[in-house]
Amino acid sequence: MPEMPEVQGLVEFLRGRATGLAVTRATVANIAALKTYDPPLTALHGAKIAGAERHGKFVDLRADAAGDELHLVFHLAKAGWLRWYDELPKTVIKPGRTPIALRVGFDDGSGFDLTEAGTKKSLAVYAARSAADVPGIARLGPDPLDPAFDRDAFAALLAGRRTQIKGVLRDQAIIAGVGNAYSDEILHAAKMSPYALAASLDDAEIDRLFQAMTDTLTDAVATASGKPPADLKDAKRRGMQVHGRRGEACPVCGDEVRSVFFADNSLEYCPTCQTGGKILADRRLSRLLK
């Protein structure tokens, strides 16, 4: 799943490549991906891209349509991605027979497709007059790299939450932009069990977790910066210390990286670094093995 650093990389790429270009087409191939009807997607035709922003894991392309502000917003979900073309293909998209959910073309001949792999289709596209009109954006918590989001603000979010810290980090209504992969990386850097309860963390643990979150995401954003969309996924994989590395040696201590599997995903962790050597039971509601 694209998370905050990769989405930021996409935003920076689109800001540099598409700003100033006029939209010549915006065609939905998977009608279920389009979540809005007013304004219609066709309202973007002829509009000039004025900029690109990120809200959590949402990409927001801001456009000027004859003096009216419009936004093309999309969320790539678990299996979505953006494929950029300097010369947009002229092939006809056949709905239902393609992984393409949306095709956008610009007046210089360039453009992009939003694609989604697999059978579970969750990618979402919105045309809106304001980014705040998109329900998912309106519900977002603070951005973890916002200068205003300091250690004390982070501690206030954790206070009283009898929830496993892994879930807190992934909850977009609490903290925007962190997903499964980077929550694994943050917890590994903080030397903290994913099952630790947020409300149980002491001041030193909160300090350590906040610093790990800030450092991990800052480094990942720097790694993604300046890369074209085609390179962002591999850059993310190469930067992972534990996520997606089950069975490999922890780069810090050399212990075997372990997994806990859930219905549609998994978490990875290092027992030596994070759980005092204990192995987490492979059940969603379990605690540490006795």
TrEMBL record:
It holds the Pfam family Fapy_DNA_glyco. It catalyses: Hydrolysis of DNA containing ring-opened 7-methylguanine residues, releasing 2,6-diamino-4-hydroxy-5-(N-methyl)formamidopyrimidine. InterPro entries: FPG_cat, FPG_N, H2TH_FPG, Ribosomal_uS13-like_H2TH, Znf_DNA_glyclase/AP_lyase, Znf_FPG/IleRS. Keywords: DNA damage, DNA repair, DNA-binding, Glycosidase, Hydrolase, Lyase, Metal-binding, Multifunctional enzyme, Zinc, Zinc-finger. Residues 2-113 form the Formamidopyrimidine-DNA glycosylase catalytic domain. It comes from the Bacteria. Its cofactor is Zn(2+). One of its GO terms (biological process) is base-excision repair. Residues 241-275 form the FPG-type domain. GO terms for molecular function: 8-oxo-7,8-dihydroguanine DNA N-glycosylase activity; class I DNA-(apurinic or apyrimidinic site) endonuclease activity; damaged DNA binding; zinc ion binding. Its EC number is 3.2.2.23, 4.2.99.18. PANTHER family: FORMAMIDOPYRIMIDINE-DNA GLYCOSYLASE. Belongs to the FPG family. This is Formamidopyrimidine-DNA glycosylase. It comes from Microbacterium thalassium.
